[in-house]
Design goal:
The complex is a heterodimer of chains A (717) and B (343). Chain A is globular. With 717 residues, chain A is mainly α. Chain B has two domains: 220 residues, Rossmann fold (3-Layer(aba) Sandwich); 70 residues, CBS domain Like. In chain B, the strands form three sheets. Chain B has a six-stranded mixed sheet with strand order 6-7-8-3-9-10, sandwiched between helices. In chain B, strands 2-1-4-5 form a four-stranded antiparallel sheet. Chain B is globular and about 70 Å long. The chains are: A mainly alpha (717), B alpha/beta (343).
Chain lengths: 717, 343
């Protein structure tokens, strides 16, 4: 009894667990239940009961509702599909002028809008692409194909790679100094020499369109949310879901609305990249000291002046960090949107992975990572750069970078001209190194992979078998063995114990949505994979983080490593694991672990670092040993921050599990991937995406609530 | 007497969802406790006062006393919940947004505790900011700002960024910025509180020098009673949103209206605050010596002179007419005995 009084929470938790296990044992696995590989679970079966709910037939085993809830939400994907098709094909038909046929045509409004939007996007992408690579499309957009035929000279020439490389080096120098400039020059030269120039520039042009557009929309919406509580409240749930929504899932409805190609990819990328921009804009504007705003007001600023001259410049750094985030999301999407036909490195990467040509995939992946790191570092340098005063410099000093770039352009053009004379075989290497003429290391890597396979096959195979048979299969069976009702009780109970009725209700709603969808079993498989990944990642991240924290140099080193790893587009992680483990669950899980270890490590280090120096000194003066300090002071205080890391780890793990569908899993991700090639997949894809997002949000809600309380309790913020 | 520059009539500021309704129901009798029970916090409670042209009113109070809120009501950075505020006869609360902006651009300047400089602008650009917001041409605004730089003694640093300046220098920029549009009314919200003591004293002297030259109408907020005594023409002491006492420094020291005010005055070195005229007696028929003291002297400066006399000393006004008398006992009593409010 005394124990009960001393630790009431502990006993509440024990009670919850007891109820959970009691339910698990009380509810038997129905004989009719089968987890069917690769098919929908609910095949027709004469033993099933059925009724029609909102136009969709719901089938379930009447006596086993406690085991799996009937899929009452089965109509949702169909409804989403029908609404989308109705919007696109039947809603609000109107007369529109058709430029090509020179007549009015009747078209549904939404179709017309999306077509105009895609045309605009296509124009933007082509414009940038042709500045970098040359082409006709932009001029055609202003004239016509006939005009081009009559005037064969009219073509955007494209920039020689030397100019682009030197230009990026100059920009890098201006933003981040010599080191960054050298990196820019080397990576660009590498890309060119190794024959990846064209796809790289395609990817770059995609990003140069998607990132600024996302920035503009994100900033605008962020400002709107800052100004109006109502806008913020309306945006908040969308922002929340988008943070945990797998990027695959957004692709599917976009297919219906915008079709296939770069333009659709840009629009989708914006949908994914705008939310973090909104959040960081909001964060930055909120962090502007109230007195600065008052000073602006007292200077007589109108609302517009206050926003443009006081608030946004003061929040500059946070907003630019938002730009950095946007760029990172764009890279990640540049690869994933290859699934809906975006050109560039991502497409090559996907193709190579499909053909199991690891060498080619590695080359493409390396180029993406090089550009991603370059743009990441450049945007960060821009964010951290302080404004300088130029008034006292003369014209040449002020514009030396632009002038230098002008010289580079002239030199580059001259070089390209000489090149066209010097290289007789039809390829001007000083203009662009063609794909098949560059140095290729693919063979080397492929041989390497073969060698690894030949040499270590036995060991890898043994490890693989052990992991799958002794760890993964039993764990999966355990997850699938949970009756839906027991899971619900466990999750809602945890919500109640952590955050009271409110939390319990939120979590209950999220879980019910998944449980009532037709994919509960698949969601369990996703959760099991994510759980396994998170457990291993957290163990590694926590250990590595704590060890590195003991020394200043290793701390910085580790944070840098985390930075670089985080820059890689998520898809790139699949390359090395496929190289080593082939096409198995192990590959996916190892990619998950590597990817999710980044936030686990980073947050451990940051958490430990956030312990105030004063406490450190106080502890040292009371004569603690290193271990005592770690366990009595640093861990308890850093724990809330580490838990936020856990939150991130879960999100990262879920993302990677879903992307792992590409290798072949049998969870929600696999269904999303299937929906991509399904004509009526939009509704299914979106619903599945929401399911994944909700899994993330359940943990997010519980962890954030707990961290909030804990921080309040400890008096830290 | 000409019209007061700032005039407040029963100003209330109450924070909370249904503040206005509660204020109406309270019928001019606002009790902070009952309001708090209903989820409202009383910031300013029935403040009425006037500030005339060229006067410096110092509002003194501890943190949470509502002094900053009062200032923000008068600059309309927040809207008062009830009452009336007149700026040079204009009803402040009835101004629309455009008129308000116009008023701020031409009539008001404000200095902030945390300086509130724009981090992305140089000293010169910061000072020129209100001018440029007004739409004055860049060249003119920069010239004007340069004058301000000289006024506050920052010449040579005009192209520095705020991050490169010390606290005292940053506040000089804040002061220059608030003066750039040549406002009639000058609000200062704890301008020196974030500075080190030595710098603070230096800035106070500088501030007095400026005011002597500029003769602005000033509302100065501080939590430092000594600062209030040193600078003020009149002091308003606030507690829990209520103005406890509003009077000249001498009267506050000599006649604290409430127990709360008296606590502040206890530790005050009276000889440094009070003037002879504050403590002198009427002209007596006593035998007065040859020594005379001016009625506008601070006691400290003439105490030795009076105390070495054993007789009553005559007090004169500016024209050397005898207007009163003071004897050594009175001085001793004022400096050492005045702990019990016995003027």
């Amino acid at each position: 009894m005394e124990l009960l009084k001393k630790y009431p929470k502990l006993f509440q938790w024990l009670f919850l667990l007891a109820v959970f296990f009691a339910l698990c044992f009380a509810i038997d696995v129905p004989e009719t239940y089968k987890f069917i590989r690769g098919q929908a679970e609910f095949v027709k079966d004469p033993n099933q009961s059925a009724f029609v709910f909102l136009g969709k037939e719901v089938r379930y085993y009447a006596f086993d509702v406690f085991w799996r809830l009937p899929p009452l939400l089965g109509w949702l994907p169909i409804w989403i599909n029908d609404s989308l098709f109705f919007l696109m094909n039947d809603w609000m038909p109107m007369e529109f002028w058709n430029e090509d046929t020179q007549e009015y045509k009747t078209r549904p409004l939404v179709l017309q809008i999306t077509r105009n939007l895609t045309a605009f996007m296509t124009f933007l992408i082509e414009l940038i692409r042709e500045i970098l690579l040359g082409g006709l499309e932009t001029i055609v957009a202003f004239t016509s194909w006939d005009w081009i035929d009559a005037n064969p000279w009219a073509e955007l020439p494209g920039l020689p790679w030397t100019i682009v490389a030197a230009g990026s080096a100059i920009l890098a120098y201006k933003l981040g100094g010599k080191g960054l400039a050298l990196y820019a020059l080397l990576s660009m030269t590498y890309i060119s020499i190794f024959g990846q120039w064209k796809p790289s520039m395609q990817t770059l042009s995609f990003i140069l369109v998607a990132a600024p557009l996302s920035f503009i929309f994100g900033l605008g919406l962020g400002v709107a949310a800052y100004k109006s509580k109502r806008v913020e409240k309306a945006l908040y749930p969308i922002l929340l879901v988008m943070q945990t929504m797998p990027q695959y899932a957004v692709l599917v409805p976009a297919l219906v609305l915008f079709g296939v190609g770069d333009h659709a990819a840009v629009i989708i990328t914006m949908i994914v990249a705008v939310p973090p921009m909104i959040l960081l804009t909001l964060l930055g504007l909120r962090a502007v000291p109230p007195e600065v705003i008052e000073a602006g007001r007292m200077s007589g600023c109108s609302n517009w002046q206050l926003m443009s001259k006081v608030l946004i410049p003061t929040a500059r750094r946070d907003i630019l960090i938002g730009v950095n985030q946007v760029i990172m999301v764009c890279f990640s999407m540049a690869v994933i949107s290859a699934f809906i036909g975006a050109k560039g490195l991502g497409f090559n990467l996907l193709l190579a992975l499909n053909q199991l040509n690891i060498g080619l995939a590695l080359e493409a992946g390396l180029c993406i990572s090089l550009i991603a790191i370059l743009l990441d570092k450049m945007s960060l340098a821009w964010a951290n750069k302080q404004v300088d005063y130029f008034g006292n410099l003369n014209f040449f000093q002020r514009n030396k970078n632009s002038l230098f770039f002008g010289v580079i352009v002239i030199v580059g053009i001259l070089l390209a001209y000489f090149g066209s004379i010097y290289f007789k075989d039809g390829y001007n290497y000083l203009f662009e190194v063609p794909h098949n003429k560059g140095i290729s290391t693919a063979d080397f890597w492929n041989k390497g992979v073969d060698w690894i396979f030949d040499t270590f096959f036995v060991y890898i195979k043994a490890f693989n078998t052990w992991l799958i048979v002794d760890v993964l299969q039993p764990m999966r069976a355990l997850y699938l063995r949970m009756p839906a009702v027991a899971t619900l009780v466990l999750v809602v109970g945890a919500g109640y114990l952590i955050g009271g009725v409110r939390s319990a209700l939120v979590v209950c709603g999220l879980t019910l949505f998944i449980a009532l969808s037709p994919w509960w079993d698949r969601a369990l498989v996703t959760t099991y994979m994510a759980t396994f990944g998170v457990l291993v990642s957290c163990t590694i991240g926590f250990t590595v983080g704590t060890l590195c924290f003991q020394n200043k140099h290793s701390t910085n080193f580790m944070l840098n490593v985390c930075d670089i790893f985080q820059t890689f587009p998520s898809f790139v992680y699949l390359i090395p694991v496929m190289m080593l483990f082939g096409i198995t669950d192990t590959s996916v899980l190892i990619a998950v672990i590597v990817y999710a270890t980044i936030p686990a490590t980073r947050y451990t280090i940051e958490g430990l670092r956030s312990v105030p120096a004063g406490l450190h000194d106080a502890a040292t003066m009371s004569g603690v040993t290193k271990f005592q300090r770690l366990f009595k002071i640093e861990f308890p205080l850093a724990f809330p921050h580490m838990m936020l890391g856990l939150n991130q780890t879960i999100v990262f793990a879920l993302f990677m599990v879903i992307i792992g569908a590409f290798i072949g899993t049998e969870d929600l991700g696999q269904y999303i991937l299937k929906a991509l090639s399904d004509k009526k997949g939009a509704g299914i894809g979106l619903t599945l995406g929401i399911c994944v997002a909700f899994i993330g949000l359940i943990f997010d809600n519980l962890i954030r609530t707990w961290v909030g309380q804990r921080k309040k309790h400890l008096g830290i913020d | 007497m000409s019209e007061p520059v700032i005039k407040c009539q029963s100003v209330y500021k109450i924070f909370g969802a249904n503040a206005e309704r509660m204020l109406k129901e309270a019928n001019g009798n606002v009790d902070a406790k009952t309001f708090q029970e209903n989820g409202c916090i009383v910031g300013v409670n029935n403040a009425s006062f006037e500030v005339s042209k060229g006067e410096m009113l110092v509002v003194m109070g501890l943190s949470g006393s509502g002094k900053s809120t009062l200032l923000r009501c008068i600059s309309r950075l927040t809207d008062a919940t009830g009452g009336k505020i007149f700026i040079e006869g204009q009803d402040l609360l009835n101004l629309n947004n455009k008129e308000l902006i116009e008023l701020r651009r031409n009539k008001m300047g404000m200095v902030f505790q945390s300086f509130a400089l724009l981090p992305h602008k140089t000293v010169l650009e910061n000072i020129a900011f209100p001018l440029q917001i007004k739409g004055i041409k860049t060249e003119n605004s920069i010239n004007k700002a340069m004058d301000m730089v000289k006024l506050v003694g920052l010449d040579g640093r005009e192209n520095y960024f705020p991050r490169e300046l010390s606290g005292g220098q940053q506040q000089r920029v804040g002061i220059a910025r608030s003066l750039a549009v040549e406002p009639d009314i000058w609000f200062l919200d704890e301008p020196f509180s974030a500075l080190d003591p030595l710098i603070r004293k230096e800035m106070q002297d500088e501030f007095l020098r400026l005011q002597e030259k500029l003769q602005k109408t000033i509302m100065f907020i501080t939590h430092d009673f000594d600062e209030a005594l040193k600078l003020a023409d009149r002091i308003a002491i606030m507690k829990d949103g209520i103005i406890e006492q509003l009077d000249t420094p001498a009267n506050i020291v000599l006649n604290p209206a409430t127990e709360y005010v008296r606590k502040f005055t206890e530790e005050v070195p009276r000889e440094k605050v009070l003037l002879i005229k504050d403590v002198m007696d009427e002209i007596t028929s006593d035998n007065m010596g040859d020594i005379k003291v001016s009625k506008d002297e601070i006691i400290e400066n003439v105490a030795e002179k009076i105390l070495t006399q054993e007789k009553t000393v005559a007090v004169t006004d500016g024209k050397n007419n005898i207007v009163g008398s003071i004897n050594p006992a009175k001085i001793i009593n004022t400096v050492f005995g005045g702990r019990k409010n016995n003027h």
